[in-house]
Amino acid sequence: MTRKIVVTGGAGYIGSHVCLELVQSGRDVLIIDDFSNAHPEAVNRIGALAGRKVDFLRADLADHGQRQAVADKIKEFGADGAVHLAGLKAVGESVAQPARYYRVNIGSALTLVDAMEAAGAKSIVFSSSATVYGDLNQNPVTETGRTGATNPYGRTKLYIEEILKDVAAADGSWGVVNLRYFNPVGAHHSGRIGEDPNDIPNNLFPFIAQVAVGRRDELSVFGNDYPTRDGTGVRDYIHVVDLAKGHVAALDYLEKGNRGATAVNLGAGRGYSVLEAVAAFKRASNRDIPYEIAPRRDGDVAEIYADPTRAKELLGWSTEKTIDDMCADHWRWQSQNPNGYAGD
Ligand code: UFG
Predict the structure, then answer these.
(1) Residue 333, in any domain of the structure
(2) Which of 4, 49, 232, 233 has its CA 20 to 30 A from that of 121?
(3) What pLDDT does 53 receive?
(4) What share of the chain has pLDDT > 70, as a percent?
(5) Would you tell me how many other CB atoms lie within 10 Å of the CB of residue 335?
(6) How many CB atoms lie within 10 A of CB 96?
(7) The model scores a pTM over 0.85
(8) Residue 206's closest CA among 183, 230, 225?
């Protein structure tokens, strides 16, 4: 029997790669997306890469008026499980508009839980984040580490994890995997899908890529006085295709009958500094990446990287791609689509 998986936020950066891996694993996919931070062209390209069209509903999960339509579509699709990625994700914006972040992110998760429950499909893989660890733990960070996010965006991730844990505790037929992503970067090897930020990129890799392609003059390196090997921030970058495969592994785990709620780190288990990432991107792109040292960014931690042992033990998953693969694939996407999906 072909498994049928709902992917909320399936047209976005991570979602598009998750959908492709799911179809390639033999599953049917229903994307639910409102395109607030994604492009319809991504859905076409997923279909083209996968060799078959994916089912699709344009809907805003946070809009109460659309809840019934979402529930009806999920039931009609015959869902077996869901990957929940829809949500707002800009840290600075979340500090300025906390109520909106809580309403949209938590409301969307609740709509999905209700719809999956009504469809009798009680399996959810949730896109959480390493941001739930704040700056409270020694590296490498394990899932039993202390949690405590430092901004409203991060708290929505933490609260949704808690809500899903409560849902699974209340009804033993629910299975939940809260995937705590470290820093997803790169793009599909084809160069056809990738990250297409709406605005000025907040994150390091899309910014570097836009400098390399000439869309921006220079990178600001946020601080070079951290207690790290070269003074710049260290993160556990993970290739988005490896990350997407982690979702397939999490669904495999749930489909084997594992129930209850479990948190799992998706990271490589090693960190790279900002300057190391810049050097790697320079090698991959053969372009100059001018940068200036700027003040530290509020809320940044000096260094964080994963202990990925649980992912290996529970899901049989570990990363395969190197920092050079991440940069080469990110660069292929950026150079073939200098203005993202909108074309030029
Ligand atoms: N950085 C720069 N210049 C930039 C952007 C980033 O020097 O223009 C540095 C940051 O200071 C940090 C590293 O590059 O040291 C990585 O920054 P990113 O913004 O790419 O990633 P973060 O680790 O800050 O972000 C992650 C997740 C977010 C999450 C956040 C919480 O990607 O979803 O952690 O802090 F919200």
Answers:
(1) no
(2) 49
(3) 86
(4) 99
(5) 14
(6) 10
(7) yes
(8) 183
Instruction: Tell whether 231 is covered by a domain.
Output: no
Give the C-alpha separation, 11 to 193, whole Å: 10
In a domain, 343, yes or no: no
Domain count of the chain? 1
| Domain of residue 23, CATH code | 3.40.50.720
CA-to-CA distance for 83 and 127, rounded, in angstroms? Answer: 8
SS3 content of the chain, % helix, strand, coil (to 5): 45, 20, 40
Q: What does each C-alpha distance from 17 to 42, 50, 183, 189 come to in angstroms?
A: 10, 11, 15, 11
pLDDT tens figures, 155-190: 999 999 999 999 999 999 999 999 999 999 999 999
| CA nearest ligand 1 atom 21, residue | 203
d(CA 21, CA 56): 16
The set of protein residues with a Cβ atom below 6 angstroms from ligand 1 is 89, 91, 129, 131, 153-154, 183, 202-204, 207, 219-222, 233, 235, 274, 297, 299-300
Domain range enclosing 16:
4-185+237-267+307-314
Other beta carbons within 10 angstroms of residue 243's beta carbon come to 26
Q: Which of 25, 8, 29, 326 is nearest to 182 (CA)?
A: 326
Q: Is 95 exposed, middle or buried (0-12, 13-18, 19+ CB in 10 A)?
A: middle
Q: In this structure, is residue 332 part of a structural domain?
A: no
Q: Calculate Rg over the CA atoms of the chain.
A: 19
**Shortest-distance Cα residue to atom 31 of ligand 1:** 131
- Contact assessment for residue 197 and residue 185, using Cβ atoms and an 8 Å cutoff: no
